[in-house]
Design brief:
Blueprint lengths: L1 H7 L15 H9 L2 H15 L4 H7 L4 H11 L11
């Protein structure tokens, strides 16, 4: 979590806004979701927080670039507001 906060921090100082702690509600939600659903949601959040920068997102999620690319493809994740490919 600390490494992720350092990566997503806007400046040289990690602030409370850079650290996201799970709430009790999200813990209850995770009990009813599959591991794949949780992983998909987590990757989407990390990608959005890093403006879809794959290198930063991979580092923040503890993954490596090509693994993250494969997960994006597997889950059919798309950048919000991106036009669909034809």
């Amino acid at each position: 979590m600390i490494e992720r906060a350092v990566v997503v921090a806007k400046g040289n100082i990690v602030t409370e806004a850079d650290i996201s702690l799970p709430s009790a509600a999200s813990d209850a939600d995770h009990r009813t979701k599959s591991l794949e659903e949780i992983e998909k949601a987590h990757i989407q959040v990390v990608l959005n927080e890093n403006q879809w920068n794959i290198v930063r997102s991979a580092h923040a999620s503890g993954s490596i670039g090509f693994t993250l690319y494969n997960k994006i493809k597997k889950f059919g994740l798309k950048k919000e507001g991106a036009a669909p490919k034809e």
